[in-house]
Each structure stands twice: as C-alpha cells, then as structure tokens.
Amino acid sequence: MPGKETNEPWWPRTRRREREWPGAIRGWLGRVGLFTNVALVLLLGLTVTAGITTVLWAGAGGGLAVVPANTSVLDLLKLGLTVTAGIGGVVALVVAYRKQRLNETAEQRLDAAATREDTKLFNERFGAAAQLLASAEPANRLAGIYAMAGLADDWNNGRQTCINVLCGYLRLPYTPPSDTTEDFTPEQSAEHAERAAHRQVRHALLDLLGERLRTEPDPSYTWHGYTFDLAGSTIDGGNLAGIQVTEGTRMNFEGAAFTGGEVSFSRARFAGGEVFFHRAEFTGGRVSFSGAKFTAGRVAFRNAEFTGGEVSFHRAEFTGRRVSFSGAKFTGGEVSFSGAEFTGGEVAFVRAEFAGGRVSFVGARFASGEVSFSGAEFTGGEVAFVGARFAGGEVSFHLAEFTSGEVSFHLAEFTSGRVPFYRAEFTSAEVDFRKVAVWDVPPIFENFPDGPPQGLHLPAQSGVKQIETSD
C-alpha cells in the first residue's frame, strides 16, 4: 500500500522492475497502431545511422585504423548505412524467427484442439460400441464388435484398450450349444438357439482378430505388436489361419478350453513375440497348425492337456527359437506332427506324459536343432515315428520312461545326428526298431550286458551303439 514501509531489500524490487519492463514495452507497442510502429522503427533506424556515422567521422578525424583519414562524408554515410543495414538484417532475422515461433505455437494449439476434439469423438464412439456389446440381442453384439474394431483401426492411442474389450468379451462365461436338438422342449430349443447365435458372434470376433493379424504389419491399420489376452476363454471355432505373430505381439491362451468345432492356425507365421497355451485343454474338435512356420519368438504348450479331438502340426516347420510341450499330457485324441520339419531351434517334450491316444511323427524330418523327450513318460497309447528321418541335430530320450503303450520306428531312417537314450527305462512298453529302413547312424543306448531289456526291439543285426555308464 502507498506509504507502507517494508523491510524487503532493494535488490529484489529492482530485479522485479527490470523483469516488468519488457512486458510493459510489448504491451504499449501492441496498443499503438501499425503506422506508429513503422514510424518508430524508421526513427530508430535513422538515429542509429546518424550515431554510427558520427562515430565513424570522429574516428576518421582521430586517425582510427579502420577508417582512412581521407574518407569523405559520403563514404562515411554509406558505411554507416551499411552497418545499419546489417543491424537491420539481424533484427529482421530475429523478427522472422519470432514470427516462426508464434506460427508454430499457433499450430501446436490448433493440433492440441484437434486432438481434444478427436479424443472426444473417439470416446463417444467407444461408449456407443461398448453399449452395443452389452446388449442382450446377438445382432447388436455383432454390430458392437465391428464398431469396436473399426474404432481400434482409427484410434492408435486407444487401440490396445479396444483390443482388451474385444478379448474380454471372449473371456466371458460361455456354454457351447449341443450338437443335437433331438427331444428338446420348446424352452430348450429357445436356449439352444440363443447359444448358437452367441457362438456366431464369438466366431465372427475370432475371424476379425485373424483378419487384423493376417496382413503385413502396418502401424496405421493392423494390430501387430499388441497384447491379446484370451486366458480362460472357451473356444469352439474360429479362423486365425495365416496370422503373423511378429515382435511385440503377445497372445495368451493360458487355461483356454478348445472344446469343439475347428480352430485354424494353418499357415500361421510365428516370427517373434509370444504365444502361450499354458494349461490349455484340448478336449474336442480340431485345432490346426498345419503348414505353420515357427521361426522366432516363443510358443509354449506347457502343461497343456490333450484329451480328445485332433491337434495337427502337419507339415509345420520348426526352424528357430523354442517351442515347448514340457509337462504336457497326451491322454486321448490325436496329435499329429506328420511331415513336420525340425531344422533348427528347440522343441521340448520334457517330462511330457504320453498316456493315451495317438501322437504321430509319421514322415517327420529331424535335420537340425534339438528335439527333447527328456524325462518323458510313455505309459499308454501310441507314439509313431513311422517313416521319420533322423538326418541331423539331436533327438534326445534322456531319462525317458517306457512303461506301457507302443513307440514305433517302422521304416525310420537314421542317417546322421544323435538319438541318445541315456538312462532311459524300458519295462513293459513296446519300443520297436525292428523294421527301420536305414540304420547307418543308430541311436545310442546304454550297455546291455544281458541283452536289450524287455519291450526294446532292435534290428537283428543292429550294430547298435552302446555306451558304458556309471552310477
């Protein structure tokens, strides 16, 4: 307040006034007109020119080295104008720079406003799509799926959120419709129709996910590099054929139940990222990885249970990284690796249980990399290596236990590589090598001083390689 004394030191007040001066000047210049501004700039330029000319004239009279003594007034004036023009050029550059900064700031503000408007629009679309998904009518749900997918295509910043909603829909409790409708009451028929309609919506959603992952990766449209969490979902059909799982993509089917219908991963390319089927249950229908290529990334079926239906890796190619079936249980149905190519990386059946059904490696080729059955238990069913070719790499049965069932190597070819049975146990299972086609580089067994154990059948003139072991 006026007249109020203060104990504040003088220097903060001085600095405050110094900071206030530029703002006061800009405010005053902003209030005057353009003509006045131009006139002031011209007056300032003339003043600077006059000052520089005077200094140069004094310098010429005082014998400054930079100004010759016989320099005329006109020459001094020209020199002064040149210096002034240079200063004006610098000022012009500063003004242009300032103008550019102002333009950039204005553009940033416009972009920010457009972003806010886009975000508002996206949120409105998101709410409308979510409301459709929550509808009791299958047709509305189907519309909601396509609306949410279209929003994900357009909304880069919200794409993962949209994907999460769609995957969350597939994780909702679901009971597939029965395969028969005989002797149904009207109420049961209505319930069956509702479940069938719900199934169509779910299949359409899986087809849609496959479509987005099937094309070449494009950040502006495709959904590569995102997370798809389908853990615990019930899947009874869907087309994921030809999808490309690239670096950064994560697909989680942990605990999922494949109960029927056909789910296709045929010709899929696993070139990076991660795909997990931990503890998944394959109880019916058909799941196909026929012609799929496993070249990079991680694919795991750890502790999965194959109890029915068919899972096919027919002519699949395993060329890199790791595919794991460790701890998996094969108790029913058929799992086929017929015609598969193992040419690199690692495929692990470590501690897997082959207790029923049929696991087929008919016509498979093992040319490189490692396939491990270490600690696996063969307690039932059939495992067929009929016509398989062991031409490189290593196929290991270290510590495997053969207690029941049948393991056949009929017409197999052993031409290269290593097939060790270190410390394997043979009790009652039938492990049959009697009708192999080629026995050039036979498997490696431990020393059997009393002959092969019961159930292990070797060729009549096997020349089998045995090793001495010590406990």
UniProtKB/TrEMBL annotation:
The chain crosses the membrane at residues 34-59, 79-97. Keywords: Membrane, Transmembrane, Transmembrane helix. This is Pentapeptide repeat protein. Residues 450-471 are annotated as: Disordered. It comes from Stackebrandtia endophytica. It comes from the Bacteria.
